[in-house]
Each structure stands twice: as structure tokens, then as C-alpha cells.
Amino acid sequence: MRPARALIDLDALRHNYRLARLRHGSRALAVVKANAYGHGAVRCARALEADADGFAVACLEEAQELRAAGITRPILLLEGVFEPAELDAVERDDLWMVVHHAEQLRIIEAARPATPYAVWLKINSGMNRVGFMPEAAADAWQRLNASGKVGEITLMTHFARADEPHVIGTEAQISRFDAATADLPGARSLANSAGVLGWPAAHRDWARPGILLYGADPMPDAGNGLLPVMTLESRVMAVRELAAGEPLGYGARFHAERPTRVGLVAMGYADGYPRSAPDGTPVSVDGQPTGLIGRVSMDMLSVDLTDLPAAGPGSRVELWGNEVPVNAVAQGAGTIAYELLCNVKRVRFEYRDSLSA
Ligand SMILES: *Cc1c(COP(=O)(O)O)cnc(C)c1O
Fold it and tell me: Which of 93, 187, 302, 310 is buried most, with the most CB atoms less than 10 Å from its CB?
């Protein structure tokens, strides 16, 4: 059997959720969109269900997968509905939905729900992606309230740069949100992961942590005590000796400067390991640090074993996890941990959970 696998530590996931809730000081929706950032939405939601105040996903299809698996906690649709036909399912599955633009307002006004919808009204406080402009917030709230179709209205916004502690944009977003909503009743939700970890002024009624649940700190080096949830690992399947000057792999990107012992590892970009990772990207072989050499190919990659004489065929290779921070790989590859985690595929997923062991 091909040894490439992703080990998912559900105890670590619960640890991170509890840490988020403690740091934020009130309720937190666990964001499990995009298949729980590549970790498996149903397994992650089940592991969190006893603790979590609720979940957030991108769209109806993701929420339905969780309901079909027996998840009964509140689920928020972060992008709301895309068309009126989705409202039946919203009602049937008892979902909460974001309302972020005028068309969604009209859809709700025209609907005939048997029980009022729970709505999160999204305000654009400076990210300029989606959300009502601050000056339109009160009017949108009044329309929802007057529609008779809506019960509780939660007020929310989303940060563009909360992972940059020394940038003033986040403070400006908080004040714009507060000014726009000063006269409106209802719970507030501002903080994503970086907001939870770095911006106490953004701590309100509900947090929406995503990436931190999976143990990737949006502000690396902050020492927040998160535990990595995914370990992406495989094994050395062959070893080759290169003489000084010899090339390795596609495009001959790497040339041996010295006699080099190369470990070929069963892991490639078809598994989600980034092809853009440069020579020297950290990997761990039998617990020892070394680096990637040569271009990552579809089904395999190569690592430098020259200084690890005990390593050979069968040696365990960690691509990221407890020994190699996923943030370090992302930084080298010119991307973010979010993208690496979401991209993992083809490998076997194995789950560890001390509570259901
Ligand atoms: C994805 C998302 C989050 C979670 O963001 P993280 O940076 O992963 O914590 C929170 N809120 C909204 C609206 C989102 O789309």
C-alpha cells in the first residue's frame, strides 16, 4: 500500500477550539467550510459537536452534508443563499444564513417561511469584498426587521488584515463597524482566527475561528499554544546516490554540489504537496530535519539524506505536522497554510480520537 497519508488528530482539534473559546471569552462558531480546511468536515464536526456552539460553512451543500451526518448544532451559511430555491432547505435543515447584499434581502422579503429565519447581517467595514456599506447597514437591518420573515439578526463583519498585528486597518474596521451598528440591537461577530488571537477589541458575542482550529497560527511565532491537527506523511521508497555535478528530477532544478544521497518519497503535487516548494523546504526524516531537493513531481518528491546515514527505504517522512510547521512549508512555497491544507487529496486519511478510541 502506498504509504502517503494524512493523520488527523481530533484531540488537537478540540484543544484548539477550546483555546479559541477561552481566548475569545464567549461563543464561537467552528468554521468547517471547504471540508474543514481539507481535514474532513463530518469527522471534524462530530469531534467538536459536544463542545462547539455551532458551525460555519460556505454554502448550503456543505451544511447539508453535516445535517445528513447527524450534526444538530446551529450551522451558519457564510455566503448565505445563492438563489431563492435554497430557502426551503434553509428552513428544513434549520440553518442560519448571512445576508450580504441587496438581492439576498429581496429574496428574504419575498419568501414565505413557516418559522422566521436566523440571519447574520454582514457589513463591509473596509475589506471591500462583500457586505453592506456602513451607511446602508441600518436600512438593511430595518428592512429585515420589517419583513416579518426574520427572527434574530446578528451583526457581523470580516477583517482583511487581522493577521498583521502592526497594521492599523483592523482598528479602523472595528470602529467603522461599531459606528455603523451603534443604534442596532443584536449580537455581534467580528473575529476570525487572527481576531481571536490578536485583537481583544474584536471580541464580542460570537467568534468565527477557522484556521486556528487546525493548528496553523495565522500569526506564526506568536506562541499561542495551538496543536497541529494534520500530519502529512509518507515514506522513503528508494535511495539514489548522485555524484557531484549530477542533476536531479524534472528540469534539472537541483544539481548536486557534493556527493548526495537522495531519498525518493511517495508524495507529490497530486497529493496536495505544493509544486512551488523550493530546494531546502523543511521536511523531517525519522524525526531529523532535512530539506526538499529537486522539483516536486506528481507522485513523488526527493529529499536530501546525505547527512542522515541511518535513513533509507522505509524511513518515515513528515511533510508537515508536529515536526515541520505547515506555515514553514507555505512560506517557502509562496502560499499560506490555508491553501496547503485545503489541497490535500488522494492520500489516505486516518483519524485519531481518544474519546472514541
Ligand atoms: C473563512 C471565514 C472565517 C474563518 O477565517 P480564519 O482566518 O480561517 O479564522 C471567518 N469568517 C468568515 C466570514 C469566513 O469566510
Answer: 302
